[in-house]
Amino acid sequence: MRGNWIVVAAVVLGGCGAAERRSEGRATQAEIDNSAQATIAPPVAPTPTPGESTTATPTPAASASDTPVDTARYLGRWTGVEGMFLIVAPSAEGVTLDMQYDLDHRATFAGTVEADGIAFTRGGMAETLRPGDGAATGLKWLADKRDCLVVKTGEGYCRD
């Protein structure tokens, strides 16, 4: 007798929520149908009229040298972790980077401000200081900072 009640309870309780699941399924399907109808078709190229040239006139592409780079945003002192720092100063050729880049090494490097950051050479390797946030540095002590320059994960400098 007890087994019959368990079966009855399972059947009754198993049906609970079924109407809600069907309703959610219909709503999801309606969203899919609506989004498919809202898809915009790509524009169709106009057909040329008789006597009109079909050759497009090339537009010169802007090169990186045509775009002015804001050097001023990089100037000043940037703080790293454990006493590391970066000081960016203007120079005749671009910028000068005075860096304490690990516990044992401090040096000055010539840098060039480019569209994606400051390019410089350190230890024979081309490096770039790229703008980012504290999370991009990979250093928990800088994680909440918003204005940073990142060389690579584990090396970054931020404004206070």
Descriptive report:
With 160 residues, the protein is an alpha+beta fold. It folds into 2 domains: 2-37; 69-158. It contains 3 helices and 8 strands. The longest helix is centred in the first third of the chain and has 20 residues, at 18-37.
Can you lay out the helices and strands and say which pair or pack?
Blueprint (H helix, E strand, L loop, with lengths): L1 H13 L3 H20 L38 E4 L5 E7 L2 E7 L5 E9 L2 E6 L2 E8 L1 H4 L10 E5 L2 E4 L2
Antiparallel strand pairs: 1-2, 2-3, 3-4, 4-5, 5-6, 6-7, 7-8
* Sheet of most strands: 8 strands, antiparallel
Q: Spell out the helices and strands N to C.
A: HHEEEEEEHEE
Low-confidence stretches: 7-13, 18-28, 30-43, 54-64
Distance between the termini: 74 Å
Using only C-alpha atoms, the radius of gyration works out to 31 Å
Estimate the global geometry from the Cα principal axes. Answer: globular
Instruction: Tell me the number of structural domains.
Output: 2
Mean pLDDT: 75
- Beta-strand portion reads 25-35%
